Amino acid sequence: MENELENVNSQNDTEETVNNEEPELDVSDDDSEELANLRKENATLKAQKEHFKKKAETKAEEKSEAKEEAKAPSQEISTFDAMALIKADVTEEEDVNKVKKWADLNGLSLREALKDSVIVKYLADKKEERQTALATNTGTNRKSSPISNEAILEKAQRGELKEDDIDKLVNARMEAKINKKL
Description:
Shape: rod-shaped
Structural class: mainly alpha
Number of strands: 2
Helix content: 55-70%
Strand content: 5-15%
Largest sheet: 2 strands, antiparallel
Distance between the termini: 128 Å
Low-confidence stretches: none
Order of helices and strands: EEHHHHHHH
Number of domains: 3
C-alpha cells in the first residue's frame, strides 16, 4: 500500500487513510471486449452530453436575444400609435407606459390595446381620479388678491358691493379725494 495517504484531523486528532490505487481486475478475453464496448458507449455518451449542452446554451442565448429585440420596438411609438393615443385622450406618461406594457404583455399593437376592456376601464378610472383631484381643494386656502380702489368704487356705483367691504369703500374714497387734491 504505497499510495495510501494518511490525513490527520486536527480537531479530533483522528487519522484517516485514503487509498488512491485503482483496483486490479482479473480480465478475461470476453470481459475485455465488454469493457471496450462500455468505453465506446461511455465516450459516445460524453460526446452527446457536450453536444446537447452546447445546443441548450445557444438556445438560451437566442431566447435572450429575442427578448431584447422584442423589448426594443416597444420603447418607440409609431406615428399611428401616437395618433391613436391622442384620439383616446391618453396624454399622461403613466397611462402611456401602462398601455405600452399591456400591449407588450398580450402581444397587441398599441391601437388594439387601447380598445381592450381592461385598458379602457383603467383609463376611465384614472381620468375620473384626476378630475376628482382637480375639483377637490387640496391646497391651502389662499386669500384673493387685493381689489384695486377703482374696482371697489365701480362695484359701489353698480350696487354690487358687499356689506363686509364698506371699510374698503371708505378707504378707497378717501384715497381718491387725496389723489385729486394733489
